[in-house]
Amino acid sequence: MTNSPETTLLGRDAALPSSPEEAKLDPVPNPHPDVNYLARFVAPEFTSICPVTGQPDFAHLVIDYCPDAHLVESKSFKLLLGSYRNHGAFHEDCTIDIAKRIIAAVKPRWLRISGYWYPRGGIPIDVFYQTGDPPDGLYVPETGVQPYRGRG
């Protein structure tokens, strides 16, 4: 497999970065930059650490974006998400940080991130962000994640 000149991880052995600051999100050329389409990443088992208690926090993330010149390379994306496993930050910080990292790496035409966090202290905290209105004609399906209902 040949690597894009911009990639650092594709086709290479790579260890899990020990922190999000060490992780690199690689762009790859978009084969269809002339088309507005939606690319979706779903991470149903995202994990980070509570910065106060040190206990693990879990989320179901749905990231939708309309690529421009570049796509997010999936291996680097998986490594970025894994780098949060030992990272202490609040739900809002992790969710928005991931969005900012994607925006900085690939400069999408549009991005939406939906962070469905499992309860901490009995309260689920959901975090949503998008860069603005989606481009005209872009098909944006629902995330498919139901609000937290507990055991009910």
UniProtKB/TrEMBL annotation:
Keywords, in A-Z order: Cytoplasm, NADP, Oxidoreductase, Queuosine biosynthesis
Location relative to the cell: Cytoplasm
GO biological process: tRNA queuosine(34) biosynthetic process
Catalytic activity: 7-aminomethyl-7-carbaguanine + 2 NADP(+) = 7-cyano-7-carbaguanine + 2 NADPH + 3 H(+)
EC number of the protein: 1.7.1.13
Region (Disordered), start-end ranges: 1-29
GO molecular function: preQ1 synthase activity
Pathway: tRNA modification; tRNA-queuosine biosynthesis
Sites where the protein binds substrate: V72, E73, S74, H91, E92
Cellular component, GO annotation: cytoplasm
InterPro entries listed in its UniProt record: GTP-CH-I_C/QueF (IPR043133), NADPH_dep_7-cyano-7-deazaG_red (IPR050084), QueF (IPR029500), QueF_type1 (IPR016856)
Active site: C50, D57
Family under the similarity heading: Belongs to the GTP cyclohydrolase I family. QueF type 1 subfamily.
Function: Catalyzes the NADPH-dependent reduction of 7-cyano-7-deazaguanine (preQ0) to 7-aminomethyl-7-deazaguanine (preQ1).
Protein name: NADPH-dependent 7-cyano-7-deazaguanine reductase
Species in which this protein is naturally found: Parvularcula marina
